[in-house]
Amino acid sequence: MWSTVLFYIGVILIALRLFKKLRIPPRSKLPPGPTGLPVIGNLFQLPTSRPWLVFDEWMKQYGPIVYLNIAGQNTIVLGTHKTAADLLDRRANIYSDRPDFVVLNLLTGGMHWAWTQADELWRKKRRGAHEAMNAQTAKEYFPYQETESVIMLDQLLADPENFTDHFQRASTSLTLTIVYGWPPLIDSAHPNVLHINRMNQQLLIAAAPGSFWVEFKHFKWMRYLPKWMCAWRRDAENAFNHDSVMFEELSADVQKRMDAGDDVTCVAAKILQETENLFEASWNSVSIYSAGAETTSGQLAWFMQAMILYPEAQLLAQDELDRVVGPDRLPTFDDYEHLPFIRATVKEILRWRGVSPLGLPHRLSEDDYYEGYFLPKDTTCFVNIWSLHHDTEVYGADAEHFNPKRFLDANGNLQSSIVDTKDEGHYSYGFGKRICVGRYIANNSLFIHIAFLLWAFNITAKVDADGNPILPDSLQFNEGLIVRPAPFSCDIIPRKMDVSEIIAQAKADRGL
Fold this sequence. Notes:
The protein has a single domain, classed as CATH 1.10.630.10. It is built from 18 helices and ten strands. The model is unreliable at 1-25 (pLDDT under 50). By secondary structure, the protein is of the alpha+beta class.
């Protein structure tokens, strides 16, 4: 009898031991990565400048998945098309959450849907955003985008030195028009614009790794400290209360216009039709605004740098514009299908220097196994998009260079998407269920802005006293989750004598 009891006890103990090994594998089953220190792990090994370049070197040393322990927080960085697609796309059901950002959630009250968990409220908000910005609906905004391009050209004619300011105005004004139905802004220093842009900068800072110690797992206890000890908590809660008042006023103004019977074509109007909760609708609307206001202007800055460094691409684009559009009118969206090189240029600028080389972090919502590695629940997952975009096996030996022709076939037609990128040819818009819902509007804005710029201007490097071109360094960035090129100068010279007259007529036609 006792032998039987001991036998079953032994079986149970062995089973428990095997289960434990399967459930919580040893450290050796985690993906490889740099060796860290006790308690803080790899915290002080995180690069503070251009981390995507450091991660790219780690990929060469450790492989396509690099594991980091950041003060107790399991973190992986994916560095190949295959790993990113396998996990974030094909296993999107468990890779679509966001990390628990303490400060960011205080700043937004947990209402900014781009940063919230993938729960039912998030799905509802995303459905509403998709309805307002899908490929078909995005065509409703063509007239607004063309108008902003006209204003942008006019401002560049008068003040070419401050081209990045004009890009920012165009991006901000268009986003306010699309989201809230505002008329075009000639000056982006409107108080509401400055307010929302300030909030956006706060969110980007709060989401950047290492901004606040309370975000690290071993320091989460700091969230329970008294408020008088935590300036970060007081500041974040005060900002949320202040911001919420203004955002509700913006959406309430849209509702007032709708109630008055006005024809209001904007995202906020579509969202308000889906929900009676003004607070929820206002934060859903501002979430869309904050996602779109920064990115397009940053991509245009990179485009200008590409034109300086790769003048042959500029000449090819201008040849296409001269052939299709001619010298007597501005481009329009009616020219879209006939301008494959311009469309390829949009894809290439988003690949060559996308404004988010690390993307936004995902969180694994349950334990997972992949390629023999154990990936624990709550692991934070980054994709080193920079590595994906500069993969010579996918984009060719010249992946480091700007070359729109990589997206064209032998006949000069836009070819089907490269690898598994949702027909984009790049990963700048993210992955899986978190892919950017505003990508159609963003692509359209870049298309028409670039077409206008190259139709109207030659973009060249400035020269020094000896006549040598002053070329920018395309590996110098302004740091942050959204990266822009380090400040640079260029010459922006009208291509035709009558550019100003054509632009003036376009303004008059639009009542500007």
